[in-house]
């Protein structure tokens, strides 16, 4: 299996602290050592950093940990390969463009019987069940809507599609187009919303504490979503199996 | 205007030496300081590094310069913004997926009258003429072929499309799908094919010399393509206006 990390905020925020804990699980405090990746949205732009080296020792992970990229939507993934060999093509997150926006997707779980890809528009480059599902999902969206629909419509379809996928196996996933971040829980996802008054947080995976009040304003809202809580002195909310949340401007909502 | 750098080889090779010279032109030896990017193909996988900081000082460029990523197809770009503001969404190279392969594109030049985008499949995320042309190009390919055609057919269409674009302005571009690298010259592109017996090369933009014979075997073929020659003690071949070359396994051919 793998682990997921996501962040959604109302002001561009760096993810250095959370990423430092998360990346230790890729070969140090945990065994997810078959590559890792992280995608940052900055306005409409998006950059992905990918490596098939374990995140605990990857020089690119070292850069990401030390280079504060300010973003409102981030998705990261550390991999323990189950379907598909260890390679760059199989490294999450995956990215495609739809309706003139980038879409980024990462998945934790196993799907033995993924839905058939009957379209021609989105095709997997690697051979993971995860990228396959991402392509299927975008193909369905592209089929239903020629252009960006109203959000209520979009989220309703997303809920249908997530429910369909969830019937086929374990599908914890995160999806973002830079405007919001969707998190779907099959078995295990936790989140926390940090807001004023901000306090101190201490990592589970490394003895590091940060005082968020030094880096934030009263108005900041920062949601962090992770397979397992990243800090040991804060209260994380477990998501329920089958639950889909849309995080926007740092707050979760039920679509 | 901007500058382009490409590499195509018959064995995975790192681009650290060439990139060190090239990236100096982004804010140090030259004025292309409005962001930069580089895309590496590794088998079917592909990773892009992008930054809107000048490549001469970008921490990501520093990483790329020191982290020897072995690749058979690389495309890099340093930007001097003409169309579209300085932003991540406008930073080359651009990437899309077609027929289950990633495609990477970078452009140097100006096109006042880009062809109309009449399809729905590929849409620009940013607002450069370059990404617009890339989308148009992929849309045409997707329209003509449902799946990968025979290469002769593909290259013939590519030649048509490049000629069409070239009538509309200055279109120096590089395009790769990881199997080969296409370079089209409107005004300025040079290339060199390095092969045995390998010798020493000295950068134009930094006083660094490398002895390629220490890093290569007798069978290696490495083509480097750049807007302006990167070394001052080797003979680079200028491409002719209107010329399209396909580099494959380290050698150029006329499609």
Question: Can you characterise this structure?
Answer:
Two copies of one chain form a homodimer. The first copy, chain A, is of the alpha+beta class and 255 residues long. Chain A has a single domain, classed as Glutamine Phosphoribosylpyrophosphate, subunit 1, domain 1, CATH 3.60.20.10. Chain A is built from four helices and 15 strands. In chain A, helix 3 (129-144) packs antiparallel against helix 4 (151-166). Chains A and B meet through strand 3, helix 2 and strand 5 of A and strand 3, helix 2 and strand 5 of B. Chains A, B: InterPro entries: EgtC-like, GATase_2_dom, Ntn_hydrolases_N.
Core attributes:
homodimer; 255 residues; alpha+beta; Glutamine Phosphoribosylpyrophosphate, subunit 1, domain 1; seven-stranded antiparallel sheet; six-stranded antiparallel sheet; 15 strands; 32% strand; globular; glycosyltransferase (chains A, B); EC 2.4.2.- (chains A, B); Class II glutamine amidotransferase (chains A, B); GATase_2_dom (chains A, B)
Short summary:
The structure is a homodimer of 255-residue chains. Chain A is α+β, with helices and mostly antiparallel strands.
Helix and strand arrangement:
The structure is a homodimer of 255-residue chains.
Chain A: E1 3-13, H1 16-24, E2 36-42, E3 45-51, H2 59-66, E4 71-78, E5 94-98, E6 101-108, H3 129-144, H4 151-166, E7 172-176, E8 181-184, E9 190-194, E10 200-202, E11 209-211, E12 222-226, E13 237-238, E14 244-248, E15 251-253
Antiparallel strand pairs in A: 1-4, 1-12, 2-3, 2-4, 5-6, 6-7, 7-8, 8-14, 9-12, 9-13, 10-11, 14-15
Helix pairs in contact in A: 1-2, 3-4
